[in-house]
Protein: MFS family permease
Amino acid sequence: MSQSNTPVPPDVPRTTAAALAEPTQRVTARWVTGLVLVNVGINAAFFGPINVFIAQQATGIDEANKEAIASLVLGCGAAVSLVANPLFGALSDRTVSGYGRRSPWVLSGAILAAAALLAMSGATAVALLVLFWCLVQLGANAAYAAITAAIPDRVPVLQRGGVGGLAALGQTAGILLGAVFGAVVSGNFMVGYWLCAAALLLSVLPYLFHRNDPTLPRELRPPFSWGNFLRGFWISPARHPDFAWAWLTRFLVNVCNQLTIVYLIFFLTDVIKHENPALGVLTLTGIYAVLVMITAVIAGPWSDRVGKRKPFVIASSAMIALAGLTMAFFPVWTGALIGAAILGIGFGAYQAVDFALLTQVLPQAADRGKDMGVINVAASLPQVFATGLAYLAVTQFGGYGTLFTTAAVIGLLGAVFVVKIKSVR
Structure:
């Protein structure tokens, strides 16, 4: 298993270099709880709007073009996240605040995203909806980049599968919470946005009070130049092939996942003819969420114990692809229920173990935030790619059967390419 270490100058005391040292001490349950709660809040802020509120708002603005409006809003927001995540990750790497490198970005990002969610609640035009959703993505990705980098900062390698599983649990609980908000507000998306904003702000407080976020000494921060800063976002596949293959497989599996869920509420409305699509989304999300949480907390520690990651990632990627095939060939409510269950089993194991794998192929400790941000692009870019592909599949190339079959093929490619990673078993 690969580990990165950044040399510390001999004249710098060991305690002041903790921000860059390879972690060896196991993190506490209290710290992990704070980490999990941040993930809950961020994902509620993301997926309440993505799964329910933006679609409802788009329908209210122009029902005849609701798919196009939703795709535009989600695509623009995802495009912002492509830049925001690695950018704020890199900025947090260089932060010398007395509160640590990551914590200031968790707090400021949450405040910005919450304010933008409140603004979205009153948006009555497509342009405003796009603008405010982009600001939500900007703030939430600042917080997400920072909290993601905190894991390789503070968690030793042999604990990362378990912590990754709990982080996945938090992400899934946030998705479920967003779906709960969608169901309980009964179409009143304005209240839904306020609930998402409140959940986000409250979720970051436990982590900030017990952050375990060492400060970066000014003498260890490299001199800044725009050329080096911008060049740092390119991680050469030739020099770091395992990082490149890990990025590609994460991208493909997330495209598969996004294609499966992006039009879920429209699928329930127009194909299955569900009498209450928002409640249907909650039901499917609940099944998915429970199974994600179960498999994430099982698969992550299991991979820690056996010291292997790739077999878990390959098997879980194949299951995610199977969920797409189930939705394609059984476009009825029962098929949707089975597909949600398979997707939950596969994605839970995938999130936990793939995250641990990714932390083991990072090029160097000093750039953990930036490099994890680049990795997170592999989860954000599919939102841009998948929304356009989903729109074409549904409106031009055969409908939802084509959409879900395409998702399955892409997911299987992600499973195949995992074998290319050499430095992690």
Notes: The domain at 25-213+227-420 is CATH 1.20.1250.20 (Growth Hormone; Chain: A;). The longest helix spans residues 29-61. The chain has 15 helices and no strands.
